[in-house]
Write a structure and sequence with these properties.
Length: 280
């Protein structure tokens, strides 16, 4: 086996250090700001076909704090409005540890506009930072927060239900409260819940056409040919993009913000535009 001198080991260490620092700088200064619009078609099952054509913009995991400039959020809002979606859904984690930054964030989000409305659910960080304060600021911005509630909306003369749950991680997700079983045979439903792995609990419910979630950040730091380096609780089975099980689909967005170390690698921030399409 080749023996390395102390001098060579020092040089290798130095090279590794430079590569690591360069990657961190790239992830923090460049990729973290490379906002991507993902356009995705979601083919519906026959029983949900009245939703065909509906265009939903979704965005999640802002993790807004005093370190973040509002420019990325302003670009998010501008890009979403430019797509003219029918409906906008925000999937939680507006803040990280402290509820106060939700106020300046909500001032940006107040500019979002869609004919069927702008709706939100809370994430685990919102619950930890102060669910009532986060809810109050979003409501003031004209955004309707759904916490184990459903709203009946109408698209092209056909009603459907939009349900939103609290955070699964903190034990505040109650599907039966939002969509009582009595309505099981009634309207098609879209479900927003922050943590994607809740999908394993709903995929036998024939009412739910689509679950929308965030939470994973797509891994935030991904390795080529490997994927997400680290994933949170309730975000290990459905990591990023579109999945289908039984009657339903789930779409998981990578979100726009970051948690420590505030870098993104092979995983740029995302806003998502989903178009529900007719069954084939
Ligand atoms: Fe989260």
């Amino acid at each position: 086996m080749m023996k390395l001198s102390r001098r060579k080991l020092f040089k290798l260490g130095l090279l590794g250090g430079v590569a690591g620092t360069s990657s961190l700088a790239y992830g923090n200064l460049i990729e973290r700001h490379q906002l991507t619009l993902e356009k995705v078609e979601v083919p519906l099952k026959l029983e949900h076909s009245t939703l065909a054509g509906l265009r939903i913009a979704m965005v999640s995991d802002f993790h807004f704090d005093e370190l973040q400039e509002g420019a990325l959020i302003a670009r998010c809002v501008e890009k979403i409005n430019a797509q003219q979606p029918d409906l906008i859904i925000l999937c939680g984690d507006y803040v990280s540890h402290d509820h106060e930054p939700v106020e300046p964030l909500a001032q940006h989000l107040a500019k979002l506009t869609a004919p069927l409305g702008v709706f939100a659910v809370l994430g685990n960080h919102d619950h930890w930072a102060g669910a009532s304060q986060v809810t109050r600021q979003l409501t003031r911005a004209g955004i309707q927060v759904l916490r184990n509630q459903a709203e009946t909306l109408t698209y092209r003369h056909s009603p459907f239900q939009l349900a939103g749950l609290g955070s699964v991680w903190v034990g505040d997700a109650h599907l039966k409260t939002a969509l009582p079983l009595l309505s099981k045979k009634s309207l098609p439903a879209i479900l927003a819940v922050h943590e994607p792995d809740f999908f394993d609990r709903i995929n036998q419910d024939p009412r739910i056409a689509l679950q929308l979630s965030g939470h994973t950040h797509g891994g935030q730091v991904c390795a080529p040919f490997y994927g997400a380096m680290r994933l949170p609780s309730w975000g290990k089975n459905y990591i990023s993009g579109l999945y289908r099980r039984h009657h339903s689909h789930i779409y998981v967005t990578r979100g726009v913000g970051t948690l420590f170390p505030h870098v993104r690698f092979c995983c740029p921030p995302e806003i998502s535009l989903l178009t529900l399409t007719a069954p084939v």
